Amino acid sequence: MTADSGRCSVTGSETTSAPVNLAGIRKQVDGILDRFLRQQAHSLEKRGLPREITDIVHDFVFAGGKRLRPTLVALGWLAAGGDSAVPTPVIQVAAALELCHTAVLVHDDIIDNSDTRRNRPTVHRVVSQRYRTRPDADRFGMRAAILLGDLVMLWCDEMLHTAQLTPAQTATVIPIFDTMRTDVIYGQYLDLATSGLSGGDVEKALEIVRYKTSSYTFECPLRMGAALADASIRIQQDLRAYAGPLGVAFQLQNDLEGVYGAGASSLDDLREGKHTALLAFAVRHADPAQSARLYELVGNPELDASGAATCREIFDIVARGQVQQMIRTRWERAQGVLDRATFPMAVKDALRAVADNVTRGITWMR
């Protein structure tokens, strides 16, 4: 192993090794995030600036979340033969992705006008509550949260550029990171542009997923970790082949939960008319009476629980089974990649656990 890269001498070995400590990786990521945000708060105080922004961000970052993207950075590193004791620079890159995700979520909640995230008020709601005596508290909360999200994205860059990577690692990772951010924003734009009951275009729905979720959540984090370990072309190809179908399956599962989940959030996607594969299949296969009901209900901002139940009844008949089969098919593709990949066995086991659990819609982190 070289001192500067932390790479093992055997890359892609299938030798038996200890299980990957996913909880330990998450703890390391959280430690870096906590220290970084505390340092930002201290820096603001020294300059005489209010630290409420860092307090709000810190509360949001540590209010939950599976740390999926940071964990996949570490698994990409390990898949490429990186040292099993994942070096601090790699963990810091992983933590930078969590800050990026924080910024994306802050803006996403504004776009969706969401009141809650992870069973707590969204950032713009937290800000508006802090300034509730203002006559424009809600509008102020939205505006302030836009700025706050922008600031967190800048902090994400700062964390990445201070990770003490080698010049070669920096040159390899930055383009992947930039692609990831471009893809998620482009995916969000497509999501907005196609909202509404415009037709049964399943391929358009899947295109949105590829940018908004597959690239952002799975492919780019794995590629970044692998790039830090100077992965072979074969390793890179296998990681992409695993990430592509799994990312689609993950989003399809989320789409089902967005309609069939418990609570008020199960109305949001229907009220917005999000262009999901579930909705596209329903429009494509509904009979005239079912189609008329969908056009009446989906996209209606006043949709109530009764109307949502009617939508679910139609989905059960014409669409839900097809989406579930798509999830299953893509899960099988991801598993097939792992069958033939030359990743270390412990990494294969960890990636199988990710694939199993994200497609079941349960908390997978152990």
Please, could you describe this protein's structure?
The structure is a single chain. The protein folds into 2 domains: 20-164, Farnesyl Diphosphate Synthase (Orthogonal Bundle), CATH 1.10.600; 166-342, Farnesyl Diphosphate Synthase, CATH 1.10.600. The two termini are 29 Å apart. The chain has 366 residues and is mostly helical. The chain has 15 helices and 2 strands. It has helices at 22-46, 52-61, 68-79, 88-112, 123-130, 137-161, 167-193, 202-228, 233-260, 268-272, 277-285, 288-297, 305-318, 320-340, 345-358; strands at residues 116-117, 120-121. Helix 3 (68-79) runs antiparallel to helix 4 and helix 8 crosses helix 9. The protein has a two-stranded antiparallel ribbon with strand order 1-2.
Question: Which terms summarize this structure?
Answer:
about 375 residues; mainly alpha; Farnesyl Diphosphate Synthase; 15 helices; 2 strands; about 70% helix; flat; disordered C terminus; prenyltransferase activity; metal-binding; Polyprenyl synthetase family protein; metal ion binding
What's the order of the H and E elements?
A: HHHHEEHHHHHHHHHHH
Largest sheet geometry:
2 strands, antiparallel
Q: Given the structure, what is the number of helices?
A: 15
Total E-strand runs:
2
Q: Mean pLDDT across all residues, rounded? A: 90
Question: How large is the radius of gyration?
Answer: 21 Å
**Biggest β-sheet: strands ordered side by side in the sheet:** 1-2
Rough outline? flat
Pfam families: polyprenyl_synt
Protein name: Polyprenyl synthetase family protein
Cofactor: Mg(2+)
GO molecular function: metal ion binding; prenyltransferase activity
